[in-house]
Amino acid sequence: MKTSNNKILIVEDELFLLNVLSDKFKREGFRVVQATDGQKGLDMAAKHKPDLILLDIIMPLVDGVTMVKRMRGDSRIADVPVIIISNLSEVERIAEILGAKTGVIEYLVKSHWSLEGVVKKVRETLQVYTLLRQTQGIK
User: For residue 13, what is the domain's CATH number?
Assistant: First the structure.
């Protein structure tokens, strides 16, 4: 097991994928919080203040686009980096989020990544985000 003290929130309504991602990140030493829809994701983000969020777009109750927009309006979680995990058919929604500059760092198309690739992208994003925060004097 690799060590990490980073906490990630995985927001995914496909339970199989949610569990696979959660198990992988736990084995890699991350602390993992889960949510199965955008509303629960907002609640868990506010409660647990994760270091990063892996977020699906198409979900019940509150979708990923709406969740990101609401996060950016909430000072408690406005600065949490987000990596979108999506289906290729959601390209227009991804473009909407990225074009709005709502703090989405990256997106991964579900059919084009491996578990190791997701872990690598999360680690890279956390390193960059940590450096940015340090240079800006943000705690």
Answer: 3.40.50.2300
Q: Which residues are bridge partners to 84 per DSSP?
A: 55, 107
CB 47 within 8 A of CB 55: no
CA distance 56 to 109: 10
27-78: pLDDT as tens digits: 999 999 999 999 999 999 999 999 999 998 888 889 888 888 898 889 999 8
Tell me, what DSSP letter sits at residue 57? Answer: S
Q: Give helix then strand counts, H and E, for the chain.
A: 5, 5
Whether 31 maps to a domain, the answer reads yes
Residue 59 located in a structural domain:
yes
Domain residues for 65?
A: 7-135
State how far the alpha carbon of 96 is from the alpha carbons of 31, 49, 88, 119, in Å: 30, 25, 14, 25
Q: Return the CA Rg of the chain.
A: 14
Q: Residue 37: inside a domain, yes or no?
A: yes
Residue 55 lies in a domain: yes
| Among 22-26, 95-99, 112-116, 128-132, the least confident range | 95-99
